[in-house]
Amino acid sequence: MLNRLVHLLFIFIGGTLGYLFIPEISNVLREIPLWLINPYVGTAFGVIIFYYTTFGLTHYIVNLLKLMEESIIKAPVTDVIFGTMGLILGLIVAYLIGIPISAIQIPVVSTISPIFVTIFIGYLGYQIGFKKRHELNNLFSITRHFSKDKKKAEEGAHKKNRIEMKILDTSVIIDGRIADICEAGFIEGTLVIPDFVLGELQHIADSSDKLKRIRGQRGLDILNKIRNNLHANVEIEIYEGKFPDIQEVDSKLVKLAKVLPGVVITNDFNLNKVCELQGIKVLNINDLANAMKPIVLPGEKLKVQIIKHGKEYHQGIAYLNDGTMIVVDDGQEHIGRM
User: Fold this and answer.
1) Given this model, what pLDDT does residue 78 score?
2) Residue 293: Cβ within 10 Å count
3) Segments in 132-248 forming alpha helices (H)
4) 48, 169, 195, 337: which has the fewest C-beta neighbours closer than 10 Å?
5) How far apart are CA 259 and CA 148, in angstroms?
6) Rounded to whole angstroms, how far apart are CA atoms 77 and 80?
7) Order of strands, edge to edge, in the sheet holding 189-194?
8) Which ranges constitute the DSSP H helices of 54-169?
9) What's the pLDDT at 157?
């Protein structure tokens, strides 16, 4: 394949030179048939002459091209890139220089000179790009690091000024501990209460089941408590979007967290897992409660009040302040005492 391409290149060069110069040579010579002056005849002669005269050179040129190909493949990518960039710039400069040269009214100068200028300037550009690759690479690296540092600084300032919205789900509102956490100032920013969560709370509060009705009313009372006892750094926002194409409330919460974007506050285990799979940040109240449990070491003495009988004989049951149950052996006799 490469042999044929080289042959076609020589045929093209021979045809071009024959088209340009054989009619001129025929005019200089006398007693030449008129059909030799025809440019197309000159093209045919040029093709034939170059095809046969360069037939033996094709093999060497192909080997030279293969050596160049192997050298390029073995060369580092940066060397190839900067060498190519230099070559392209050199060819652009050669083209600009060739424009006034082509305007010269001397056929040899206007046709041959641009070719040599293109080869020379292109080679010079390649050498400059290749030999100056380390300096150019350092220059680009400095510019790139400067851009990255500037971008990181802007992102850091943006994150510093932006506090993520926190979306409350139904379970965490009914749980009620979120009100105490907000009142204590551990949460800041905007608390988003979706309209579809309010609708679910209203539906639970209107339920015929007594337990569900109590839970729904408790959730509505918790929302009123949060609104009436807002900390200075907390705001409440009602999101009125419906997402009619989504049926389940948990799926709507996941969609809303992606749209805002925001953080979902919940104590629902399944919703927690779904959010993690979707790449959404979750604040779980139960995780916070577990993190706040006091650490009791083996052998440490505690003062607790035994309040009831244990499961086994002579056992008593006591509780820590966080609700952790303690079983006290031989504590049955001390029920009601510290």
Assistant:
1) 73
2) 12
3) 133-161, 170-175, 177-184, 195-205, 210-228
4) 337
5) 27
6) 5
7) 234-239, 189-194, 165-168, 262-266, 282-284
8) 57-74, 77-102, 107-131, 133-161
9) 47
Strands 316-319 and 306-309, bridge-based pairing:
antiparallel
- Contact assessment for residue 213 and residue 206, using Cβ atoms and an 8 Å cutoff: yes
Residue 152 DSSP SS3: helix
Nearest one of 267, 333, 274 to 306, comparing CA atoms: 333
Cβ distance 212 to 204 under 8 Å? yes
Rounded CA gap, 198 and 121, in Å?
Answer: 75
pLDDT band of 152, cuts 50, 70, 90: low
DSSP letter at 208?
Answer: S
Of 26-30, 171-175, 190-194, 287-291, which range is least confident?
26-30
Stretch (H or E) spanning 16: helix 2-28
CA–CA distances in Å: residue 170 to residues 39, 206, 258, 315, 338: 90, 15, 18, 39, 39
pTM to 2 decimal places:
0.45
Q: Which CATH superfamily is domain 166-292 in?
A: 5'-nuclease (3.40.50.1010)
Quote the tokens at residue 60.
């060497």
Could you read off the pLDDT of 51-75 as tens digits, one per residue?
Answer: 777 767 777 777 777 787 777 777 6
